[in-house]
Design goal:
Helix content is about 85%, strand content about 0%. By secondary structure, the chain is an all-alpha fold. It has one domain.
Length: about 220
C-alpha cells in the first residue's frame, strides 16, 4: 500500500470518528460536513484507481463510491432538515441503492458462470429472511418497507456474489472486495436494527459507522490490486 492510500484511509477513519462525536453532540451541520469529508476520502481513492487504470471495472466501482458518498450526506441531512427528514432519508437510501447496483453490475461483468445464479438466489433468500423478521418484529412505515425490499435485496445479492467470486475466482483483489462487501452489509444490518427497533444505542451507531467506512475503504482499495 502506498503512502497516499494509507493517508486517505487514516483520514477517512479519523473524520468518521469526529463525525460520530459531532452527531452525538447534536451538532448536525458539522456532522454532515465531517461525514461528507470522510466519504470523500474513499471517493478520491476510487478516482485515483480509475485514473491509474482506465478500465470499465474501475469506472463502474468509482461511480458506486460516488453514489455512496451522496447517500452518506443525505442520510445525515435529515437531522438538519428535520421536517423533511423522512423524504431525505428515502432519497439517501435511493442513492445507496444505485451505488450498490453499480457494484453489482461490476461484479456481474467479471463473473459469467453458472454458480453466479446460486449466489443471486442465496442473497435474495437471505434478504427475504431478514426482511420477514424485520417486518414481523418492528413497526416500519410502508414507504420504508418498499425501499427496504429493493435495497436489502441488492445489498445481500451483491455480498453473496462477492463471496462467491472470492471462493470460485480466488485472488487478492476479490478477497479484499469480499471482506469490504461483508463489512458494508453488516453495517447496514446494524443501522436498520438501531434505527427501527425503537431503542437507538450509541455503541451500535459507532459499530455501524466504522464497519461502513472500513467496508467502503476496502472496496476502494481492492481497485488497486
Amino acid at each position: 500500500m502506498n503512502t497516499t492510500l494509507l493517508i486517505l484511509m487514516i483520514l477517512c477513519l479519523l473524520l468518521a470518528g469526529f463525525f460520530l462525536k459531532a452527531e452525538h453532540e447534536q451538532k448536525y451541520v458539522l456532522a454532515v460536513i465531517l461525514k461528507g469529508l470522510a466519504s470523500l476520502m474513499f471517493v478520491i481513492m476510487g478516482y485515483l484507481a480509475y485514473t491509474r487504470v482506465n478500465s470499465i471495472f474501475n469506472k463502474i466501482f468509482y461511480y458506486g463510491l460516488i453514489f455512496g458518498m451522496i447517500g452518506d450526506i443525505l442520510l445525515n441531512l435529515r437531522f438538519v432538515f428535520a421536517k423533511q427528514g423522512q423524504k431525505i432519508f428515502l432519497v439517501g437510501i435511493l442513492f445507496f441503492l444505485i451505488g450498490h447496483l453499480f457494484y453489482l453490475y461490476g461484479l456481474l461483468k467479471q463473473a459469467r458462470h453458472v454458480w453466479v445464479w446460486y449466489c443471486i438466489i442465496a442473497g435474495a433468500l437471505a434478504a427475504a429472511a431478514l426482511l420477514g423478521y424485520i417486518f414481523k418484529t418492528m413497526e416500519i412505515k410502508k414507504a420504508f418497507k418498499i425501499f427496504g425490499i429493493f435495497y436489502l435485496g441488492a445489498v445481500f445479492i451483491m455480498c453473496a456474489l462477492a463471496i462467491g467470486m472470492a471462493i470460485f475466482m480466488p485472488g487478492k483483489r476479490r478477497l479484499v472486495y469480499c471482506i469490504g462487501a461483508i463489512l458494508f452489509t453488516a453495517s447496514d444490518v446494524i443501522l436498520i436494527f438501531n434505527t427501527f427497533s425503537g431503542t437507538t444505542k450509541y455503541s451500535l451507531r459507532k459499530a455501524n459507522i466504522f464497519l461502513y467506512y472500513l467496508g467502503q475503504l476496502l472496496i476502494a482499495y481492492s481497485l488497486f490490486l
